[in-house]
Amino acid sequence: MDSRRLPPKSSRTRSSNDGGPLHHHQKRLAPSVDNRSPSPTPKASDALPLPLYLTNAIFFTLFFSVAYYLLHRWRDKIRDSTPLHVVTFPEIAAIVSLMASFIYLLGFFGIDFVQSFITRPSHDAWDLEDTDNPNCLINEDHRLVTCPPPANVPPISKVPNPEPIITPLASVEDEEIVKSVTEGTLPSYSLESKLGDCKRAAVIRREALQRTTGRSLEGLPIQGFDYDSILGQCCEMPVGYVQIPVGIAGPLLLNGMEYMVPMATTEGCLVASTNRGCKAMYASGGATSVVLADGMTRAPVVRFETAKRASELKLFLEDPDNFDTLSIVFNRSSRFARLQGIKCSMAGKNLYMRFKCSTGDAMGMNMVSKGVQNVLDFLQNDFHDMEVIGISGNFCSDKKPAAVNWIEGRGKSVVCEAIIRDEIVKKVLKTSVASLVELNMLKNLAGSAVAGALGGFNAHASNIVSAIFIATGQDPAQNIESSHCITMMEAVNNGKDLHISVTMPSIEVGTVGGGTQLASQSACLNLLGVKGASKESPGSNSRLLATIVAGSVLAGELSLMAAIAQGQLVKSHMKYNRSSKDISKAAS
């Protein structure tokens, strides 16, 4: 492109008599006209044959008239079954007029590339433009195409990449390993197997991460943790561990026994509120809890060529005469796994088989999965055309809110109840029985129904469930179905006392396996008296833990509902859930 700089204003307005440079299209003027005032700067709209407002009105009218005409023509063609691509000469003219008016209107409303073709100025318009910027460029069509910033304005600097953070390591060998990880020649995930030292691998991985990202991990502790205990079980590629404070609520008086409940949480007021609920329950004689069912589930999905063939397998699995055979095959997977039942559901030619079994003191997901795999292998002897799509078909249903868990249960199904005396309601909870009953109906029952809740007919069961799960090494993601809970309240003993209960159909807990074997979590289980597996009665420890969860939820529901009924929720959170620390100083 033939681009050249637009000369400064002074050089463009000098006459030939001054000896200044002239543009190629400028003419020398006689001295008699040198004193005339400069002509006004022409506008782009001066090129139009009509005033701008008349031109706009014409094109507006043309656009809508032609559009109206074409719409009517196309409607008639559709009614007469005439192909739309067959057009007449008036229709071609109308389409061309529509496009022309549309392009004009786009230019009128500021579309630059269209406007430049409609209202492009002439040579003299650019050359007589009154601009003081000598850095504007003009192309061969005498149009402004760019305007670089003045030389004295510094360019905008980009945000620099953060400098690598380098922490001296114990040896030159470790430095070489970090260099290999940062360069990508040594995979970070293979450090444990390469070095044979889990803690050293975590330190090297952490340093490589800091150098790669340029971000410091200061504040994330790495010392004081047994990294060997999580290898191949709890966490891959560790670089440290997160500290979560653990508070104690209690004593929780449940089934005549006292328990101090550990709760790992960062939500202020939660432990204090649960503790108040425990106090009210203790003063009223405690709570009673019953385990209604105990069975973990897994539901594979298989596919057949026809729905008829899928239904044949469904009938076979649900036939009581075949249950003993299937149980023998299933129970081979573990000395604790015991098949309890199989329920099937079809979707076309796809079959979902929900296996339910007891799992001892383990939460049992791996145990039931192995048993299901044994049964699938056995079934393919008679059902050769069965295609296994997945070991889990979401009919289980794990870590997702599902009606099947709410109705059928999963894990431990528990109900817990207590009667809180009227004087305790007034003295400890600072409210009345009538207020609690009314609030429970309008909030936990009617309000949850209005919200379309699934298993969420409670005030905050998941708060307590999550805190206990984290403290005792459970799977936090299973808080979803484990928090399914319906809270019921009613006045008893001639309206004087409060009967409160929580029904939780799918509490998924274990006292062995997973995170339960970590030192901190194991200590919390030991505090509750449910550490490890029960040798006398397999499964009793995990069932007891489930009842403690339900009893703690009952205490939390009681206290929070009292706070809401009394209008103290916001005040208590302002007192216990707000730091008095100077945040600005902490940030600096």
Can you walk through the features of this model?
- The chain has 21 helices and 14 strands.
- It has 588 residues and is α+β, with helices and mostly antiparallel strands.
- A hairpin with a 4-residue loop joins strand 13 (485-492) and strand 14 (497-507).
- The longest helix is centred in the N-terminal third of the chain and has 29 residues, at 52-80.
- Its main location: endoplasmic reticulum.
- GO terms for molecular function: hydroxymethylglutaryl-CoA reductase (NADPH) activity.
- The chain crosses the membrane at residues 50-71, 92-111.
- Belongs to the HMG-CoA reductase family.
Unreliable residue stretches: 1-37, 111-132, 140-145
The level of helicity is 40-55%
**Terminal Cα span:** 54 Å
What is the CA-atom radius of gyration, in angstroms? 39 Å
Instruction: Kindly state the number of beta strands.
Output: 14
Structural class, judged by helices and strands? alpha+beta
* Envelope shape: extended
Query: What profile does the largest beta sheet have?
Result: 9 strands, mixed
Quote the beta fraction. 15-25%
Number of helices: 21
The average pLDDT value, as a whole number, equals 84
